[in-house]
Amino acid sequence: YLFTLCFLPDQSLSGFSSPNRSGHSVFFLELEAKMETAMEVYNDVEMSTPPIKRRKKKSKVWEHFTIGVTEPGCRRAFCKGCNQSFAYSSGTKVAGTSHLKRHIDKGTCPALLHHTHDNNDNDNSQPMMTTPKSDHTPRRRYRTQNTYVPFDQDKCRHEIAKMIIMHDYPLHMVEHPGFVSFVQALHPQFDNVSFNNVQGDCVATYLSEKQNVIKSLEGIPGRLCLTLDMWTSKLTLGYVFITGHFIDSDWKIQKKLLNVLMEPYPESEEALSLAVSNCVSEWGLEGKLFSVAFNHPASKTAVENIRSLLCVRNPGVLDGQLVIGNCVARTFSGLAKDVLDKGKDVIKKIRDSVKHVKTSESHEERFVELKEQLQVPSDKVLCLDDKTQWNTTYNMLVAASELKEVFSCLDTADPDFKQPPSAEDWMHVESLCTFLKPLYEAASTLQSSGNPSAVTFFHEVWKTQSDLSRAIAGEDPYVAGIAKTMKEKVDKYWRECSLVLAMAVVMDPRFKMKLVEFSFSKIFGEDAGKNIKTVDDGIHELFNEYMALPAPLKPASEADGLSDFDNYILETTGQNLKSELDQYLDETLLPRVQEFDVLDWWKQNKLKYPTLCKMARDILSIPVSAAAFDYVFDMEPREMDEYKTSLRPETVEALICAREWLLESDASSQQMSSAVVNAEA
């Protein structure tokens, strides 16, 4: 009331009695009367003023939200469906309704999502607040951890293509109803992609990654060695996997899958040479090749086609002599196959015995109990073999051989076990294992090391040939028969690959020509001198070819103005100076320490042997196996699956190459991250 009196006109207060009049009661009676007069005046003013109309809320979000006061001066919007609260106003600031629309539009409200799903099932009605699609629709945003992230259709398609490539999923999966439903549940705004769309996205990813590979190859300081791995298919089409091997500027062996080329006639004499020619042209490798190795059986004409191609495209590399027609993995698999074929009858008996134990839980329990009773010390576990992987057969034979005492007595504990292998059978098993063991250990080296040294396999092949020679001279006809068949293949491998392997040995400062002379005297006997001379002549001829190569120009900052003096020294004393190669060969051998790194040694001595160092880099990069390390124990060539053979050859190449490159990139990133973590620790 007092507040109202303050706003009354002065004339409305006339006649108001002073409080000095006697008696407070009279004063308050007069005050009450004047208050009534003031209220009448106030009401008259209010009635004469037009009422303020509040603007009606037009947004559809208010069909789903209500406003509530949470604290003085602060109001929040509450979802009717899930009761989640959102900022609406604080003081004079109003948050708007965009974030409320997102809650409805994106389907993040559980209650609304359930309601929409039911409506779709009943009357095919559309979700609320959908926005018509157009080419110029602005990117929608969704909220994650208080950060607004733009929805990017192109990025989502790129990630789907990358997922398909890395995990080898079929391209048609993007059209499968289950995948379409899954993606729509993740994000309703995503536009479904077709097989053709994702095929194009995968090829685009391949082309993008290919640029990175091209850049890495441009910086190679030396030459490139190629391996050709031929895959078959049920459609009689061949697929040639071409991999490049090289030593980088940090003296580390590297390899890159370059091509997967479909060959319609894989048995033709031009198939391999055509694949090499296409690879050289596509990647610009003219003058950069050093050697070619392959694992596909090839005729002499086919090998000569590759050799002549190597000469034409790469002059000055021993007239194409560095062509390896038998990779070591296929050679070892062929030797193992010969052993298994000779012992197929006894191997079947062992396989049936193992199958009896492993296919019945009660049989296996009896076997274990008997083993404990007999106190057999072996910790080997029985396992059935995979006939396509010869190492599994070897492991089965080794385990069974160590448990032969249990098998010999098993018929007494297990009446269902009728025909245990005989003592003679077990003797043959031991002989088979004796032949398979060195092959298994050598092939395992290919798996344990991504790029095994040619020096290592010089020792392995030499040792294998020496062991076979002794076995043939032995008294056991069963063993001698196996050894004779195996030695024929080892001799063939030596004839084709001894020069390459021996050159790698010469580039090892622990062995040089001394090991070649020693081993060849054991292998070739009276012909050793001729074969030793072949290696010595070859290494000198190759060195002379490297000496004839033009030297790279030195930057002006490195020139010392004494080039004429250098020429004078060469002219006056050149006849009396030893070459880098002869100087290297005449020096004392280094101690044979086990952890010796031959590549690091050449890295440290590149100033002492500038030309020989370049030759050593190329020789030591020659791969000994054309098979991928996962397939070194395969009994037969790899076969392309039916799905990929149904695709275009260009798509097959894009999927396989891009997968290899992406996995390598991820592995490299993980190594860098681990190095950073270790450095910080």
In short:
Helix content is 55%, strand content 10%. It is an alpha+beta fold and 681 residues long.
Keywords:
single chain; DNA-binding; disordered N terminus; alpha+beta; 11 strands
Structure description:
Helix 19 (about 530-550) packs across helix 23. It contains 25 helices and eleven strands. With about 675 residues, the chain is of the alpha+beta class. Mean pLDDT is about 80; it is low at about 1-25, about 45-50, about 115-135 and about 555-560. The strands form three sheets. The protein has a five-stranded mixed beta sheet. The protein has helices at about 1-5, 25-50, 100-105, 110-125, 155-165, 175-185, 195-220, 270-285, 300-315, 330-340, 345-360, 360-375, 390-400, 405-415, 425-450, 455-470, 475-505, 510-525, 530-550, 565-575, 580-585, 600-605, 610-620, 640-645, 650-680, and strands at about 65-70, 75-80, 85-90, 95, 140-145, 145-150, 225-230, 240-245, 255-265, 290-295, 325. Helices cover about 55% and strands about 10% of the residues.
Topology of helices and strands:
Elements lengths: L1 H4 L18 H25 L16 E7 L2 E6 L5 E6 L2 E2 L3 H8 L4 H14 L17 E4 L2 E4 L2 H15 L9 H10 L8 H24 L5 E8 L6 E10 L5 E11 L7 H13 L5 E6 L5 H14 L9 E2 L3 H15 L1 H15 L2 H14 L15 H13 L1 H10 L9 H26 L5 H19 L4 H30 L5 H13 L3 H21 L14 H11 L6 H7 L11 H7 L5 H10 L22 H4 L3 H32 L1
Parallel strand pairs: 7-10, 10-11
Antiparallel strand pairs: 1-2, 2-3, 3-4, 5-6, 7-8, 8-9
Helix pairs in contact: 5-7, 5-25, 7-25, 8-9, 10-15, 10-17, 11-13, 12-14, 13-15, 16-17, 17-19, 18-19, 19-23
